[in-house]
Design a protein that fits this description.
Layout lengths: L1 H10 L4 H6 L4 E7 L4 E4 L1 H7 L3 H4 L4 H4 L5 H14 L3 E3 L25 E9 L5 E10 L1 H24 L10 H17 L4 E8 L2 H8 L1 H16 L7 E6 L2 E7 L3 H17 L1 E3 L6 E3 L2 E7 L6 H17 L5 E3 L7 E4 L2
Parallel strand pairs: 11-12
Antiparallel strand pairs: 1-2, 1-5, 3-4, 4-5, 6-8, 6-11, 7-8, 9-10, 12-13
Helix pairs in contact: 9-10
Length: about 325
C-alpha cells in the first residue's frame, strides 16, 4: 500500500518525501535491512525530541534500547521476508515508542497510546529494501474507552448495590420479588422443580431488647453468613425484611428442600453467635416454611403460602421446618 501511495504522489509531480517528512498526525520511521534509520519524520522529531539529523544513519535499537527488540525485530524481519504488512493495536501493546501523551485531556496516562503498522518499502525495481513503521496516536480513543469502561464498572457496581441488603450483604427484597417471578417462569418453561423457603429468627425482639440493636445487627450478619455458606451457588438467600429471610431454591425436589432446610435449622441451633463485646454468646433458632412450586400457583401466592407454613412452625413451638403437603393442612416436619 505504501508503494502505491508513493507512486501516485510521484505521478502527480509532488514531492512525496517532503509530505511524509512533515506529517504531524502520523509517525513515519523507515529502516533498512540492518535496522538503520533512513527516514524520521516531523511527528517522530516532535514526540521523541530527536531531530532527524541526530538519528539518520544510526541503528534504531541503539538509539532506543528500551524498545522491545525481540518483538519488533521479528515483526520487521517478517515484513521483509513475507513482503506483507503487519499491524499492532494499542489494546494488544499500548505503545511501540514510549512517548508522552500529546493530548492535554489525557490526564490519566503518562504515555501515548499507539497503533502501529509495519509494511515493506521497495526500491525502483520493486525489491524490498526496508520496512516502514507507521505510528498513529490513539490516546484519545484509549482514554475514551477507559472512561467508558469505568462508567460501565460504576453502573454495574450501582446495579449490584441496588440488589444487596446493606447490613447483611445478602440480596434484598426488591431482588427477591424479581427473582422469584423469573425462577417460576424458568421452572415452568423447562419443567424443573423449584422450592421457596421463608426463614424467621425466633424471639429476635427479645435479643434486641436484651442486648441492643447493635447486637441484633450482629446476629443478622452472623446468621446470613452461616446460611449462605451452606448453600449451592445457584441458590438465592435474600433478606426479606427485619429478621425474615427468603430462600429461593431452583432445581430441587420438595423432599430435598426439606432435608436442606432441616440441615440449616440444626446448624443454626448448634451455632454460638459471639457479640461484639467478645464475651457474650447468643444462641439462635429459626422457624421455616417450605413451599414447592405447584401447578397454577403464582409467585406471589407461593410466597404467601411459604409464609403461612412459617407461621405454622411458629405455632408449633418454633425451631422447626414446615413443609407443604397438598393432602393435608401444613404441619411441621419436626419441632422442639
Amino acid at each position: 500500500m505504501g508503494a502505491l501511495v508513493m507512486k501516485s504522489l510521484q505521478n502527480a509531480s509532488l514531492d512525496a518525501t517532503d509530505i511524509v517528512d512533515n506529517l504531524l498526525t502520523v509517525g513515519i520511521v523507515v529502516v533498512d535491512r540492518r535496522f538503520t534509520v533512513i527516514m524520521w519524520n516531523r511527528f517522530m522529531e516532535l514526540n521523541s525530541n530527536l531531530r532527524a539529523e541526530d538519528i539518520l544513519g544510526k541503528n534504531l535499537f541503539d538509539v532506543f534500547p528500551e524498545l522491545n527488540r525481540n518483538w519488533l525485530e521479528k515483526k520487521i524481519r517478517s515484513c521483509l521476508v513475507l513482503r506483507s504488512a503487519s499491524f499492532s493495536s494499542w489494546q494488544q501493546r499500548p505503545y511501540l515508542f514510549r512517548f508522552k501523551a500529546s493530548n492535554m485531556l489525557s490526564l490519566e496516562t503518562d504515555h501515548m497510546y499507539q497503533d502501529a503498522a509495519i509494511f515493506p518499502v521497495r526500491d525502483a525495481a520493486g525489491l524490498v529494501e526496508g520496512a516502514c513503521i507507521a505510528i498513529h496516536d490513539v490516546t484519545e480513543l484509549a482514554e475514551a474507552k477507559r472512561l467508558l469502561d469505568l462508567s460501565l464498572d460504576q453502573a454495574l457496581d450501582l446495579e449490584e448495590s441496588n440488589r444487596r441488603d446493606a447490613l447483611t450483604g445478602l440480596f434484598n427484597r426488591k431482588f427477591f420479588d424479581e427473582q422469584i417471578s423469573q425462577e417460576v417462569v424458568t421452572a415452568r418453561r423447562h419443567n424443573r422443580p423449584l422450592a421457596l423457603a421463608m426463614i424467621d429468627i425466633d424471639h429476635f425482639k427479645t435479643i434486641n431488647d436484651t442486648y441492643g440493636h447493635v447486637a441484633g445487627d450482629r446476629v443478622l450478619r452472623a446468621l446470613a453468613t452461616l446460611l449462605n455458606n451452606m448453600l449451592r451457588g445457584s441458590d438465592y438467600l435474600c433478606r426479606y425484611g427485619g429478621e425474615e429471610f427468603g430462600l429461593i431454591l431452583p432445581q430441587i425436589s420438595p423432599e430435598h428442600a426439606g432435608i436442606l432446610l432441616e440441615r440449616l435449622r440444626k446448624a443454626v441451633e448448634n451455632a454460638d453467635t459471639l457479640l461484639d463485646d467478645g464475651v457474650t454468646v447468643v444462641k439462635l433458632t429459626i422457624s421455616v416454611g417450605v413451599m414447592p412450586l405447584r401447578e397454577g400457583v403464582a409467585p406471589g401466592t407461593m410466597v404467601r403460602m411459604a409464609d403461612e407454613l412459617l407461621y405454622a412452625s411458629k405455632q408449633a413451638g418454633r425451631n422447626c421446618v414446615s413443609l407443604y403437603k397438598p393432602e393435608v393442612a401444613p404441619v411441621p416436619t419436626e419441632s422442639r
